[in-house]
Write a structure and sequence with these properties.
- The protein has about 575 residues and is mainly beta.
- The chain has five domains: about 100 residues, Immunoglobulins (Immunoglobulin-like, Sandwich), CATH 2.60.40.10; about 100 residues, Sandwich (Immunoglobulin-like); about 90 residues, Sandwich (Immunoglobulin-like); about 90 residues; about 140 residues, Sandwich (Immunoglobulin-like).
- Helices cover about 10% and strands about 45% of the residues.
- The strands form eleven sheets. Strands 2-8-7-4-5 form a five-stranded mixed β-sheet, with no helix packed on it. The protein has a four-stranded antiparallel β-sheet with strand order 9-10-14-13, with no helix packed on it.
- It is rod-shaped, with a radius of gyration of 59 Å.
- The relative contact order is 0.06.
Length: about 575
């Protein structure tokens, strides 16, 4: 059984092994192409075709530059087509080679004469190769190119996308302008785009370029564009939040385009103190744009003015600059009430005015009552709350006596007056406290006139409610002040302890509220018969009101200056009594 298998295998091998391996001789040899380059030139490989050489291993005779033939035994083993590919390397000399003889290695009886020339050429210079490229320089108007095979006598051709404008940029070996700079290793080219038209395209829609090393030795076309500035973040800074910063990528010649939010008009002269680095820029707003910023916010673009091109828009919303504060309470010092608290406009470094309304806020049914300024020393936490460098943000405003007199019990609303032209908002705790209800009006009474020490004297009392001191009184004849004539004045400073009810009427603890006004003959002669009016003079600056019974008592008329009384007993005159009348 084993012998049968061996016999079958031997038969199959006879079928598979080509007859060429046993005795045939090659009759021709051809080389294609007949011209190759040393690596890395192309082509550097050629194909050998041998007539009747299927699966044959061949010996060859060759010559170099017409010299004597040399033998290479077992040079190639051919495929079923009688072919093989040969690739040369750098060790194969440049020049004219030729194969002049070929034979079957396994039938080495004689060589078949052939002539198959092969010319080996030196490797051509390598093509310039662009690896990467982009924009550069401080203002992004330069182009950099990395790659290989860049030479001092290379050139760069730049062309706009429409192929209308173009320019050669010369290597340093030419000595021409415009030129590019070449790194010592020949792997980096840099140059500035100076032609205005090409520079415009560089920023707007890009440029096409290639590197030229002579004849057909050029790189592939590549596209490059100077990108617009980019903004990744932005916010307000500085103590007053009037400075803005943006981070991203910026040329150093960048400028800022500011517009009111949602509007197309550019704000001129809108900033100062611009500072630009490649990753960040900052600037300070000018006062002319404060209102636009504080009300609607600003839209900002970063612009490279060389091209020009714009970044995407960035919105800076209004910063909190509203009026802020708190009404702490009401205090009393002596006879004076004070409204106390603090107020500010956020980020504002100074003091602001405050307006006080009673009965309601401004525009909401309130009545303006008085005002002041929040300029008293304040605590550090208030400055922190206000985002302000000011340390004088408190107020302590005297409440006018006229306000306590007229608006007692009405709620208090304090409006901060915005220095930014924004809303004059009420501060916290408005509407909670009320005006103290204090009656400080003038009161009193004219008792009448009497004769004392031969003199008419007008008697009465007067005071300002809650005031323990004495007040002045003015006497008018013929009518109250404004229509009557002032006759004289005095002070209601005589003791009033004999009538404790007066102190009750005055709502004070004083003891000297009475007055006594002599009515001289001259007064009676001038104003006799005219009604008398007494005004109390308010120490609180309130109305100098007339006191009770004014207008009901008239000035006494003038009479004889003396009278005589005759005393008789019977018909006999005993005495004469003379009395001096007032």
């Amino acid at each position: 059984m084993v012998s049968k298998r061996i016999g079958l295998l031997t038969f199959l091998l006879w079928l598979v092994i080509p007859v060429a391996a046993f005795g045939q001789q090659p009759y021709s040899l051809d080389i294609s192409p007949g011209q190759v380059y040393q690596p890395p030139g192309d082509p550097s490989c050629y194909t050998v075709t041998v007539g009747d050489g299927a699966y044959m291993t061949i010996d060859v005779l060759f010559t170099y530059e017409g010299g004597d033939p040399q033998e290479i035994p077992g040079w190639l083993t051919l495929d079923w087509n009688g072919q093989a590919m040969v690739c040369i390397d750098g060790s194969m000399a440049v020049g004219q080679w030729a194969i002049v003889g070929v034979r079957n290695t396994y039938e080495p009886y004689y060589y078949t004469s052939v002539y198959a020339p092969l010319e080996v050429l030196p490797a051509p210079p390598p093509h310039p190769w662009i690896d990467q490229l982009g924009s550069g320089c401080d203002n992004w108007d330069c182009i950099w190119i990395t790659g290989t095979n860049f030479l001092p006598n290379s050139r760069v051709l730049i062309v706009d996308p429409n192929s209308i404008s173009s320019q050669w940029i010369w290597g340093p070996g030419y000595g021409y302008e415009p030129h590019f700079d070449l790194a010592p290793d020949g792997q980096l080219i840099t140059f500035q785009v100076t032609d205005p038209t090409l520079r415009y395209h560089f920023g707007y829609d890009g440029l096409w370029l290639y590197v030229w090393n002579g004849d057909e030795n050029v790189s592939a076309w590549r596209y490059v564009q100077s990108p617009p500035p980019t903004v990744s973040a932005g916010d307000a800074t500085c103590d007053d939040l009037r400075c803005l910063w943006m981070s991203g990528s910026f040329p150093l010649n960048a400028v800022i385009d500011l517009r009111p939010h949602g509007q197309p008009n550019v704000l001129p002269n809108s900033y100062t103190d611009l500072n630009v680095t490649e990753p960040q820029l900052s600037f300070r707003l000018n006062p002319s744009v404060y209102y636009a910023y504080d009300t609607a916010g600003l839209d900002a673009w970063v612009v490279n003015t060389l091209f020009p091109n714009w970044s995407g828009g960035t919105y800076f919303p209004p910063q909190p600059r509203w009026v802020h504060g708190y009404i702490d309470g009401i205090s009393l010092s002596g006879y004076q009430y004070y409204l106390n608290g603090w107020a500010c406009a956020i980020t504002y470094p100074g003091s602001i005015d405050v307006h006080v309304y009673v009965g309601g806020p401004a525009g909401g049914g309130g009545t303006f009552a008085f005002s002041g300024t929040a300029n008293i020393a304040s605590e550090p936490n208030i400055s922190t709350d206000c985002h302000s460098t000011s340390s004088h943000l408190r107020f302590s405003i005297p409440i006018p006596h006229s306000v306590t007199q007229q608006y007692g019990g009405q709620p208090i609303y304090v409006h901060g007056i915005s220095p930014f032209g924004l809303a004059n908002l009420t501060i916290d705790n408005s509407g909670v406290l009320t005006i103290p209800a204090v009656d400080r009006s003038i009161t009193g009474w004219i008792s009448g006139y009497v004769v004392e020490n031969n003199q008419y004297v007008l008697k009465g009392w007067a005071c300002a409610k809650t005031y323990p001191g004495s007040v002045d009184v003015h006497l008018y004849a013929g009518g109250p002040a404004g229509t009557g004539t002032m006759v004289t004045s005095t002070t209601a400073n005589l003791t009033s302890t004999n009538d404790p009810q007066i102190a009750v009427f005055c709502n004070a603890g004083g003891t000297n509220y009475r007055f006594s006004i002599p009515l001289t003959m001259a007064m009676r002669q001038q104003y006799g018969g005219q009604p008398l009016y007494v005004h109390g003079i308010s120490p609180f600056g309130l109305a100098n009101s007339t006191i009770g019974n004014s207008g009901n008592i008239n000035m006494p008329l003038p009479v004889a200056t003396s009278s005589k009384e005759y005393i008789y007993i019977g018909d006999r005159l005993l005495a004469v009594d003379t009395t001096n009348l007032p």
